[in-house]
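We were asked to recover a plausible sequence for a given structure. The inputs and outputs are reproduced exactly as logged, with field labels preserved.

PROBLEM: sequence recovery
POSITIONS: 235
GIVEN STRUCTURE:
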């Protein structure tokens, strides 16, 4: 498991470095929202172990997200904390201890603030959806932040109105994205597949969002039919 985590960190660092324009300072995080080509480049650099883990976890998030959403939200918080620890460790040293410490702190802080954590998760999902739609419709990329802001505000507020449905949607969306990128990473390992996939997705940029959207909807429908009923006396 630690090997997969280190591999994920190394892959993300490589993709972040490649995403930076010439002359910019190096760093762990990219200085802009990654475009589809950069996401595919990151996927190509992914190892088979990490790809298989993404596929398996994607299925769990997509099909069972609502029933175990508290544990999955804590896992998200821990992973985010670990990435923050790695980013700090690049400048201060002690990357692994800082990653473990930040992961623990993020998870502990998240537990008593679960509803707010889901709202933050929803806002990030909304920002990603907003940017994706903005670029899919060919709008000015310099104002993609506007689409991101609209998605962020809409989904974060929606969380407090229809909490259960939002949890299902966010979990299913994350699971679908993990599943698709994991499968793409495995397909890239076959000779000649990377050229075909890159050509197809570059020719029809709407395909990648569609590949994520379809399993997201299927996951929401499945969770709606299999979600645990509320305790007696509660609705």
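RECOVERED SEQUENCE:
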């Amino acid at each position: 498991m630690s090997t997969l985590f280190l591999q994920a960190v190394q892959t993300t660092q490589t993709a972040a470095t490649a995403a930076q324009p010439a002359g910019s300072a190096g760093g762990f995080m990219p200085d802009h929202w990654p475009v589809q080509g950069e996401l595919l480049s990151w996927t190509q650099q992914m190892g088979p172990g990490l790809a298989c883990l993404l596929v398996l976890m994607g299925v769990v998030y997509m099909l069972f997200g609502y029933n175990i959403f508290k544990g999955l939200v804590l896992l998200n918080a821990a992973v985010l904390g670990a990435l923050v620890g790695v980013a700090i460790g690049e400048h201060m040293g002690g990357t692994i201890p800082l990653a473990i410490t930040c992961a623990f702190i993020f998870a502990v802080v998240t537990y008593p603030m679960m509803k707010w954590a889901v709202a933050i998760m929803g806002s990030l999902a909304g920002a990603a959806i907003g940017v994706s739609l903005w670029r899919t419709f060919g709008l000015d990329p310099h104002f993609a932040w506007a689409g991101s802001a609209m998605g962020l505000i809409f989904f974060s507020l929606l969380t407090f109105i229809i909490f259960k449905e939002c949890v299902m949607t966010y979990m299913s969306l994350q699971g679908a994205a993990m599943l698709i990128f994991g499968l793409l990473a495995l397909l890239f390992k076959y000779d000649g597949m990377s050229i075909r996939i890159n050509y197809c997705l570059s020719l029809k940029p709407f395909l990648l969002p569609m590949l994520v959207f379809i399993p997201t909807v299927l996951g929401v429908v499945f969770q709606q039919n299999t979600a645990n009923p509320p305790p007696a006396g509660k609705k």
